[in-house]
Structure formats: C-alpha cells, structure tokens
Amino acid sequence: MRRIGMLTSGGDCQALNATMRGVAKSLYNMYDDVEIIGFEDGYKGLIYANYKIMQPSDFSGILTEGGTILGTSRQPFKQMRVPDENGLDKVESMKHTYRKLKLNCLVVLGGNGSQKTANMLSEEGLNVVSLPKTIDNDLWGTEMTFGFQSAVNIATNAIDCIHTTAASHRRVFIVEVMGHKVGWLTLHAGMAGGADIILLPEIPYDINVVCEAITRRSKAGKHFSILAVAEGAISKEEAAMTKKQLKEKKKNGPVYPSVAYEIGARITEITGSEVRVTVPGHTQRGGSPCAYDRVISTRLGAEAARLIAEEQYGYMVAFRGNDIVQVPLKEVAGKLKTVDPGCAMIQEAKMVGICFGDE
Amino acid sequence: MRRIGMLTSGGDCQALNATMRGVAKSLYNMYDDVEIIGFEDGYKGLIYANYKIMQPSDFSGILTEGGTILGTSRQPFKQMRVPDENGLDKVESMKHTYRKLKLNCLVVLGGNGSQKTANMLSEEGLNVVSLPKTIDNDLWGTEMTFGFQSAVNIATNAIDCIHTTAASHRRVFIVEVMGHKVGWLTLHAGMAGGADIILLPEIPYDINVVCEAITRRSKAGKHFSILAVAEGAISKEEAAMTKKQLKEKKKNGPVYPSVAYEIGARITEITGSEVRVTVPGHTQRGGSPCAYDRVISTRLGAEAARLIAEEQYGYMVAFRGNDIVQVPLKEVAGKLKTVDPGCAMIQEAKMVGICFGDE
Amino acid sequence: MRRIGMLTSGGDCQALNATMRGVAKSLYNMYDDVEIIGFEDGYKGLIYANYKIMQPSDFSGILTEGGTILGTSRQPFKQMRVPDENGLDKVESMKHTYRKLKLNCLVVLGGNGSQKTANMLSEEGLNVVSLPKTIDNDLWGTEMTFGFQSAVNIATNAIDCIHTTAASHRRVFIVEVMGHKVGWLTLHAGMAGGADIILLPEIPYDINVVCEAITRRSKAGKHFSILAVAEGAISKEEAAMTKKQLKEKKKNGPVYPSVAYEIGARITEITGSEVRVTVPGHTQRGGSPCAYDRVISTRLGAEAARLIAEEQYGYMVAFRGNDIVQVPLKEVAGKLKTVDPGCAMIQEAKMVGICFGDE
Amino acid sequence: MRRIGMLTSGGDCQALNATMRGVAKSLYNMYDDVEIIGFEDGYKGLIYANYKIMQPSDFSGILTEGGTILGTSRQPFKQMRVPDENGLDKVESMKHTYRKLKLNCLVVLGGNGSQKTANMLSEEGLNVVSLPKTIDNDLWGTEMTFGFQSAVNIATNAIDCIHTTAASHRRVFIVEVMGHKVGWLTLHAGMAGGADIILLPEIPYDINVVCEAITRRSKAGKHFSILAVAEGAISKEEAAMTKKQLKEKKKNGPVYPSVAYEIGARITEITGSEVRVTVPGHTQRGGSPCAYDRVISTRLGAEAARLIAEEQYGYMVAFRGNDIVQVPLKEVAGKLKTVDPGCAMIQEAKMVGICFGDE
Fold this sequence. Notes:
The structure is a homotetramer.
Chain A: E1 2-8, H1 16-30, E2 34-39, H2 43-47, E3 51-53, H3 90-100, E4 105-110, H4 112-123, E5 128-134, E6 146-147, H5 148-168, E7 172-177, H6 184-193, E8 197-199, H7 207-219, E9 225-230, H8 236-240, H9 243-252, H10 259-271, E10 275-278, H11 291-309, E11 315-320, E12 323-328, H12 329-332, H13 344-351
Parallel strand pairs in A: 1-2, 1-4, 4-5, 5-6, 5-11, 7-9, 7-10, 8-9
Antiparallel strand pairs in A: 2-3, 11-12
C-alpha cells in the first residue's frame, strides 16, 4: 500500500484541481493499492492532522473547476519555526503527521513561500514532490506556472471591455492587475489587451513620463489612454525612499485603497483628465482554468506521479520549452523570477509603442 | 431623398452599433434614396453641426462591436437651456442644424436624460424617434433596454470568478456593480451570480443586518459571503440625512473612492472579517453585446425605421412581452423605472435566501 | 412533514440545476420539516421508484452548473400508457410511487412531452407543479423557457466565429442549429449572429431563392454568405410531399447525416460555391447557464415553491412580460409555440435584409 | 524611404491581424519614412500586383480582431511553378512585383506551404522574413505558432459544453477537431477538455480498442464517453492500405461528410451505443485571438521588425522556451512537426487514462 499526502497552499488559483486530478489519476492508474490523503487548508491540515482519505471519484469532474477541493491557507514560511499559540512546533507537527500516517510522499501545490516550506520539509527528511502554482508566474526554475495564463485571460478581458467604452468617451482608464512584487501578469495582460501604458513593480515610473505619454496620444487624436497597473507599481520617488520614509508618506498623505487610485489622482492633477479605475481583484484567481492551464496541469500532475513511482524526491516539477522537467527544490526555494527591465519582452513591448513610465 | 439624422447620447453601452445597424439596414432596404447623417459625440454634434454622411458600408460588420461608431457625450438636460460659453443657445442651434440639413427625422439612442431632450426637441417641432439605451434598464415605458443584459453578463461573470476563489479562502467579498440611482443591474447580476447579500439604492441597508447575515452564514459552516453592491447603495442612516448632513459626513469621515470600500471597512470593523473588493467599473459598459441585446437591438432598430416610414414621430420604440411597441416620448420623459422594494422579483430573491440588508 | 418529489425530464438543458435550486432553497427557507425526494433519470425514476432523499447541501453550488444532478431520460408521452417489457403499467406505477412515498406534490421540469405527462398525472389526481424547460422555447403559455437564451448564446457564438473566418475566405458557411420542429433558436441565433440567410422548419425554403440571395451578395462584393439552418429546415418540395414520398426520397437519394449537409450539396451544385458546414450539435445544450437563464430559473423556482405552499396544483409556472405567472397544465399540454411566418420578428428580420428562402 | 511588403497566406487563423500590427507598429516607431504595402489575398496579390498602401491607422484597433485585413488565399506551393491560365509564370510575376514596387523586404505570415514559397522567394533573391501562422502548430522550428492556442480554446470549449450534457444522458459523443495530417490541436483540446478517447492522424486506431474503452467505462458506471477525433484520424486498416485501396474503399462504402460520422457509425454498430457528433469546423479558425496568441503575435511581430531593421533576411521568426528566435527559412521549408506517438505528452496523456485507440 502506497500512501501519498497532498495539499494546496497559499493564494488559490485556477488549475489546482486540474493538477491534483493529474497526479491522482496517474497514481490510481499505476497502482491498485494507492491511497491519497488530502490535507485541508494547506500546511495547516498537515500541522493539525486535518485530512480526508480521498476516493478516485473525488478527482472526477474537477478538471474544469476553479478553486481547490482541499481548501488552502497562507502559512508564511517565516512563521513555520515560530511555535503557535499553544506552543506547538509546527515543523515537528508536520513531520509527526507525515510519519503517523506512514506517508510515502507529500505532494505540495504551492507558490514561492510554499516551495520554501516544501524544501525545508525535504531537508528535514520527508519525501516531497512539489508543483508550481501561482497566477504570478514568479517561480524560479519553471517557464510557466499553472494559473498564470488563466489570470492573464481575465485581466486581458477587463482591458478589452474597457477598450470599447474608452474609445467612445474621452478619458483615462486604469486597470489594476494583481502582482505586488512581480509584474508578469500585468505585462502579459497589458500587451494582450493593447494597453498604452504598463506600470510594473520592477520598473519604477516617473508620473510625468506617464502623463506625457497620455498627452502625446491626445495630441495625436487618440482621446483615451489605457493603463495596466500592477498592484505593486512604484514611482521613482518611492523606489528611492527608505521603508521609514514610505511609512511616513502613507501616514501623512491621503489614503487610497490601492495604487491605481493614487496614480489616477496624480494623473487628474497633472493632466486634468477624467480617470476611471477598474479593479478586477480576486476575479483574477477565479473561474474555470483556461485550456492552456489544464494541459500543463495535467502534464505536470502526470510527471509528479512518475517521480513518485520512481522514488525521486526533493523536486519541483517544472515546465520548460514545452517539456516537463524536474528541478531540485533547494534550487527553487527562496528565489523569485522577476521581470528584468532589460529583457527581450520589455524591449518588444517598447518597440510596439508601450510606455513603461521609465523614459 | 429622405434625410435621417442619428446620434448616440450619454454613457455608452454595448449594443449602440447593433441598434444603429438595425435602423440603417432597414432604411437602406426600404428606400433607394435615403441618406443617413451621423452626428458626432451625441447632442454636441447636433448643436455644433459636427456630422458625417454615412455610407451603407459604415453599418456593415458592427453588429458585434461594442462602443459607438458615432461617439457619445453627456449633455445634461438641465443645461440644454443654458447658453454655452460663447452665448450660443443650444436648443436653437440643434433646431437650426436639423433644418439646415433638411432632416426628415432625428433618431436618438439614449438613456433617461437623452430621452428628456428628445422629447423637448419633439415638442419644439422636430420629428424624433428614440431608442432605449442604457445598462441600467431604468427607462420608463420599456421592459428592457439594450445594453442591460450585456452588462448583467459582465457583472455576473465577476461574481462567478469570485465564487471559486471565495470558496477556497475564508473572506467576505464585495463586487461593486454600476447603478447610482437604480438597482436593476445589481439585482439581476446578484441573483445570477448567487450573491448572498444584495444592496440596492432603492432599499436602504442596516449594516448590522448585513453583518448578521454574514455571521449567520459563518455559523452554518459557510466561511465566505459575497455581496453585490450597487454604486448607489445607501445605509438607513444616510437615507434619513438631509443633503447638508450627507455633505458634512463626507467631509469629516474617511474618504473612500466608492461605496464598496466604505461598506467593506464597516464589515471588517464589526465582524473582524477580511474583506476584498472588486470593482468591474466601466468593463460593464464594454465588450461585444450579448446575443439577447443584439436581437432586441435589431428588432428595435427595424421598428424605428418602420415608424419613420410611416411618419409616426414623437415616440420611443420599446420592448414589452417579446413585442416591440411605441411609447409617446412625453410619457417616457422624466420618469425613472426603479426597483420597487415590494416587487415580485425582490420577494422571489428573498425566498431563495438573499439578504437585502433591510430586515 | 412536507414531502416534495422532483424530477427533470426530456433532453437536458442549461438551467435545470439553477431551477431546482430555486425551488429547493425556497422550500427549505419556508419549512423546517420539508423533505425533497429526487427521482433519477426523469419519469423513469418515478415509475421504478429510483430516488434519493435530497439534502440542502445537494442544492448548494449548482446555480452555475449545466446538466442535471438528477439525470434525465426521454419517456415519450405516447408510450406512457403502453406497458413496459415486464407488463408494468407505467402510469399506475408512477401513482403508486407517489402515494407510497406520501408526496404532497410532484415538481416536474420538462419540455413539451413532459408537460403532457405532467398534465396526465395531474388529471389522475396527483398534485403537480411544472416548470418550462427547453432550449427550443416552444412551450405554449410562456414567453420564455429556461435553457433557451443559453442555447442562443452558444449557437450565436458559433456564427460569430465563422464570421471572422468567412470574411477572409470566399465561401458559403452553414451553421446547423438545433430545432427539429420549431425555429426560435435558429431565428434568434441567426439574428444575433448576423446570418444572411435563415432557414426554419416553419418556413419552407426554395433552394433557388437561397442561391439567388447568395449570388446577389456576391455581386454586391460580399464574397461570403452565412446560413443559420435549423435541423428541421424543409424545402418547399419536401413540405408538399406525403410521408411516404419523403421516405422514398430518403431511401433513393444520397444519405446525409443532417440537413445542413444536404443543403450545402445543393448550393454547391447550383452556385458552384465551396460550402463549409458547422454542426455545434449538443454543445447547444451544455455549458453553464447564462445570467438571463439563471435569473428566470431562480424566479420560476421560487414561484413554484410559493404555489406548493399555497397548495395550488395543476399549474406550469411561466414567464410573461418580466412577470412570473401560473398557467393551468391542461392549457399547456399538447400545444406547441411555433414561429408564425407572419409574426413581427420575422418581418423585422426581413426588414434588415435577412432571407428566409421563401420569396 | 523603406518599403515593406506584407501578405497573409493559406487558411486564416486568429492572430494574423495582431501579428501584422506588431510588425507595423514597430516599423512605424523605428522609421519616419517607412511605407507598408499590403498584398491582397495572399501570394495572389503579389503575383497580380493587387495591393494597397497601408496607413498607420489601418493597424489600429486590430489586435483583437479575427481574420485578416489583407484577405488570404491558398496558393499551393506545387503550383507556383505551373503557369496560370494565361500562361503567366507566377514566380517571375512575384519577383517582378517585388522589384517594381522597390520593396526592401517581404513579410510573409503563413503555414507550411506558405513557408516553402517564402523560402523559394528567398532563394530567388528576394529579402524575406516570415512568421509562423497556423492553428495546427505543425511548423518545424518553432515551439508554438500563433492561432494554435485560440483554436485549442474553441475546440476545448466545445468538449466542455458536451461534458455537461453527456453526463445527463447515456451516450457516446464525438467532437471532430481540425487537423488533417497533424494532431496537436486534437491532442491539446482533448486533454484540456477531459476527453476519454483521442484519435490522431499520427496514431492509427483499432476500432475494437476504442469500443473496449467505451465499454470499460460503461461497466465502471460512467455511462458516457467523449471522443476528440482529428479530421485526419485513421484506422489501422486504412493506414495499411495503398492509395488505390483507400480510393476503392471510399467509392464502395457509404459516404460520410467527415471521419467523425464514419467512426460514429462503427461504434454504434459494435457497441449499440447512441452516438452524437459535433463538428465545430471553421469556428476553430475564428473569433478574437486569445491573450496568449496576442502576446506571442506582438512579440513575433516586433522581432520581425527588428530583423528587417538589421537587414537579416531569409528567416522565420519563431518561439522557443518563452524566447523569440530566428530560424533559417531553408531549415523550416518542407518539414512538418507531427505528434510523435512516443513523445512525453502522449505518455502523460496515457498516464491519466486517455485512450488513443492503439493498445
């Protein structure tokens, strides 16, 4: 009897179920006596031994379903070594649950922080195979994460809708796209949606450069501009501030629920343009996964099962050039794949005339 | 030679082009010598004689296009009798343009304010036929306006996306739906999306009732709640305030970019729940019109052409019980079709358990 | 304790689950002690007493799901009085099951044939409330059936996709839309998709008239034509044939899997045009119900529950002019709502230039 | 003054306009004096000198539009050297047009055949840069072609819709996916849609193996099966036939409009199951390009412009591992990228239980 634990961790995204289905279907097809244990709400379920014995039918019909049948929660890596309110050591608890349930392997679907924890558990001696989940596509070691293309579709669709209405009125529109630290989602959605200006966490913007781009379009007879702005977009002034100065600024200035409203206010101030803000928010994590995500999820899931069958542990399954590869967890953990301001894609975007507010 | 003027007025919406196509194709099929004059940017084009002579090919391929090929602008009815900055009387200018161009009829696609102006022009002696445009479905005299069902689809889709992600986390989600004075869009999207709580301008809410509904769900094991909130949702306290008091409140309290953020802050304050806000904003006016809107737009357009052919002027073409009817403009002008808190649809929504914050 | 039976009958469609949810949520909210019994696979479940006791949680999260959680089957009305292979009288069996389970009422979601059976059961003394299900919108007594608008969306989307590719090539495209006897679905999708030619079961076509319309477009520089053809489209020759002659024709001529291929072959024969056929087929019954369908389903469901509460039996709940009304089953049973060739909508379609092959 | 010719060739697909926009916007941004000449209807426009001088505004707003603003046609490579009906040598004519218009470069958007012609023109001394267009993703030298992911979405959506209705009835459903020689589209859509059986041109099927898979599912309580079948799916018997034998078979057997109907008939014959066929057909080439395609199209277009600026001719711009690279045309021409029956993706698909009819 093989016993495989499984959990989904961190912010949810679109193809978590599709990926788990890929792992499970492959395992059930390979072994007559495999048992999958699903931990509830991420690492929390492993810590507190909240789990259910999954049945093959649990994985049926979930290829197209958003969310996660196991639930998820954020368990910051930093606090993993901090005892909980009852003095419980979380890492030891996870190891205890793993051993008590006599697991052969733990399958973790997670983003950056979750991969760090997965690596730690691997270093602590557990057999771990992980899968790259995040709408941010910011995981090191894989060209693509599942969830990303589905989120791109939703953010792009918002920009598309804005386009038709923008062309009829004479305004500036800001669509705020998810991404506090990394701009891949905003960059892709902005390019796909034909945004005129794209502001990313990795490329601090000069509000005057942004306003000049708007004015230039206006003078060329294009009476609207569309900005795709990452949640973590940052001005050159802010980028130069210390953490303390940033806090001061927040405390003294007007409070905006998010960066798009602040940038909108600055644009109105400088250009006099009416600005309208759209915040797709958590819709970007929801809905049915797109075909692309379902394909890579199924493939990643099958390869995770193969690693388990071959007893190759300590790896994240990853996507490279249409192939599925395996990357040592210790190489993945703690690294972020950010947008390099000088990369080919940014250059290409600039070639077609997109302004990033930097020059 | 028949000469027909046409304009689109007010906030844009999804089937303006489809409707104009319906009018134009019908006219071109009926008459060999009809000429359609398109005024740019709504009544502004009529006031300042900005127009283009349309060709049949201009109306080809636009059935599925959002926005309006004529452009639009808001020209508040109240200011129509106020001379512009150059002392120009706008009403006289419109009449002048109409006569100079020897129009047989003016076709107006517009919402509430635009219908008032259409009626005034009709009373001033112009031949006017109007069409019911608005995502708000708040026009008196018609069961349905074009644009409404397309907007419902977009707002519903936002709630759908939130649903999958909400079920994975444990939070309160607010989707802010367009509608400052009228709640039809929020009511339909809220019902279609399976929102737990719907807040409308017509039904002042008690924040405690809202929070109790959230807590009740939580106690029943449903660890998330979704609110569909109209832009013009109003609390019982606010509803009881004078205009002056409302202004005071706004001046002294924290400033929120829109009502959803304020309600979200109150919910966190009272229940301690994390709240996430989604603002689809102008996406609700954009994108390709849905099949429903394209059908009624084509039908409304054809019937407008028939009225013109029969020289029946002074009417808005309207939709009633799957039929297209005509309603005298003077009956339409100045009336708003709001959500009656006691209407069947609200009762049905309450029967399936939706909370409106009122009891 | 109230005991309510429920079944879904006939070809499936998109908002069956949404409607059952509407009924169930309303009942559970009204009564503490209601029990809903779900019969499996339509009337078959009632005949053979295959059922499950439903729980409130069964109706949770199904608003957006296509298909039916109860399953469905076709049980032709004509064979209801014919004993089955074991000599079982089906009508008596249904009455027996109803009584044995001590039902207060049976809720039937069905189309034409199913309503006839519902009426028969009502006349046999059972308490029946029915709901209007069909993608064909051919039920007498209601302006709209749930499923219809969702199916219109899918068929329209197919025509939309064809449009972009048709405009690049020079061909005739046929999209075959569901509807053997009634053309509402084809008419709505055809209008919404901007089809040039629409062929319906109710309006026999002359293939030469169809080909002339194609040639006329071609001469006017429009090098493609799109036909929306109902499965049951019929030529004038066929319409004039006896059943025997029709059978002869089928036996002797080439065999086509469906009418679109036959019409395509004739068009190629006469005009020399390349023809491409698209058959969306059962996709038209699938997918998530559209917002419109979810709203009317929820409303219809709530009103069905109200009828049950008021012990008003023998009715179909129906939709008229944005209101939900009740229609005696005996008025509904056996009547078909077909497209009247002289109705306003056909005239409007002709005004915008759509050819129906009849003149 | 730089003069750049541009044409779209072969079957159309979804991001042709997006790609041309990418090339054009980049060129206009780089040069003040560039002129783009658009040839109409593919190579035909180059042969017969049918062209238009494009304006920057021609490329505005087309990012999201399906089809091609230049039109397209199939000009088989084999017939390029065969004089036309007037004795005109097509290759010489193309060279003549190119020189007469003093082009600096010709940009070709095309699939397999078109790349062969592009290579020939390059070998004949013209400056050529080409871009990989096809819904089939069968071009050698690139991991991805634009159009492919959009087509996958449409075919997947068809399977999704079938899924909900299939689960309610008890039938076998066949969705016929485009692809006469290459199965990538069917493979991706089949995996994304959760098809149970996938039949590809590259993997000859045994109808008995297919029917056993259906029966096995049925015995396991899954009363429906969904097949994703490529247009060019081929049985083991057919694969073993000579061309002459194949012709004989076609002449003597029943005639089916396409392979799905034939396979359906065999399944009914062997298993007795009711089979329903869906043919999305040319819808797979239509509609707005998906976000993924718009991103790679814009990137590919920008890099094509860079090659032109650097006077690097004789290349196809290609996509590899998230990077845009250039591949010599002579390496691309005449090679087909087919599905290797032993490749990782097929193995992964088999791991999750998909049957390919081969074993």
